[in-house]
Description:
The chain is mainly alpha-helical. The chain contains seven helices and no strands. The chain has helices at residues 5-46, 49-52, 62-100, 102-138, 142-180, 190-203, 210-249.
Amino acid sequence: MSFDYPVNESLVNGLSDLKTGALFSLIAYALSFVVMLIAMSMMPSLMTPGMAGPKAFPVRSMAALLGALTLIVVAGIAVLVLAILAFYKFYKATGHLKEYDPSRLGIGRTGILISLAGLGVVIIGVLILIASLAGAGASMGPQALGGVLGAIFALVGLIIIAAVLIIIGSVLFGIMIMRLAEVEGLDPGFKWAGILYIAGVILDLIPNLGVVGTILGIVATVLIYTYSKNSLEALKSGITSKKEEGEGLS
């Protein structure tokens, strides 16, 4: 497969967005880890001697506690923003890669859209629950309570459906990553990045192996970033060489 610049532009743009999305994801993972550490460090201070024995640490300063809680909230918002940005970049990347090779790489855009549908299902469920709670607050009674319980059950069902959609979408996205290894000029390590990505998604479903799945997801994201960067450098150097050859012939 030979690369001419007009054909290669969508591939370069796709890899660039893929690299940026992976970077946003890694920063979000790091911030999430920081939030977890802060929350764990606060636990002893929130416990009383009666709950944890004489070695429990009392709350020494309410200001310090509020400061830590504020930091957790701010970091949590930052994680959410980064996750949204990463998803947006992955969405753009799959669009460019679908333009480059619809039959082989278009599966990534399909996966992203299916995952997006899953997120939409969760939002609909939450809105239904909020509406039910608002109605129950306006008219307290057995009928209102039944409506709230019904909304909760509906939300649980929608969450299950959403989880299935997100898992299917993630697997399709991982297959696209694997197929990038088949494109001439790209890093063959994409195959392992896709395999680890899919393995992480599957292991996240198993309660006792969820941590392993998260670790594999982080490793896969690091590999996606690394291989995207390496492939971009190789493609851009190839483009420059072809341009120089064309100028020399002219």
